[in-house]
Amino acid sequence: MLSSRFRRLGGSRRFNSINMSLIFGILSQRVASFTSGITTYTSGSNTFTLPAGCTTLQYLCIAGGGGGGGTASDDGFWGGGGGAGGYLTGTINNPTAGNYTCVVGAGGAGGGSSAAGVNGNNSGISGTSLTITAHGGGGGGRSISGGGANCNGINGGSGGGGGGQYPQGNKGTGHGSGEGNDGHDGYPTWALAGGGGGAGSAGGSGDGGYRIGGDGTSNSISGTNVIYAVGGSGGYNPFNYNGTAGTANRGNGGGGASTTYTAFHSGGNGGSGIIILKYK
What we know:
Blueprint lengths: L1 H32 L3 E5 L2 E7 L5 E7 L24 E7 L4 E7 L18 E4 L4 E4 L82 E3 L6 E3 L45 E6 L1
Antiparallel strand pairs: 1-10, 2-5, 3-4, 3-10, 5-6, 6-7, 8-9
């Protein structure tokens, strides 16, 4: 009888041991599931908390795009395209858990009457394992007969395009280091404005080497393939319009304005930036 009782107790202990192992295994899987995910920020200053136990931190950080250049009412010329916001991406192995500050830059305003576009705002990530800054895209140069101040594209993450006038505006320079490219000079013969630079190429990739904004770069960190940081197109004869705004949360540059001697027009606003963090 005593032997039988011990066997029952021993069997119970073995049964409890098996149950506890299963419970601990399930809990471990649930804890592991909490240390992976994707976080997206689309504006302002934010605090991201990286959980403990992560082995990789992948990031995409894009600044605000530059605004397109404006036109005067009496010159018949065209504003340069805004440069794309700076584009930074990468992966950190064995990152340190804790808080990271993530600031998303707004797009720059398009230039009004005879005004250059405004640079986009920087985006950045700052923490123990990662400190980076993506620079805002350069504003596009204004158009005005006889040249003068603000006709040149402005330097930025990607440079703004030069305004189209006599003499033409010069391109803005991109930040380089894989972040962005130059805009394109304006063209004096036909007063064509230069396109803003993009993350994938310099401005002016078509239309005889002028006007077209630089290519963006595709990224699938969000789970969907998206093209970011496209340069704004320069204004173009014989159209008469305000520049097109850059797409929000892509960091695209704003388009330059066009006019046919009838009224001034404004450049398009640059698109806001974005920060995406993928961790596991």
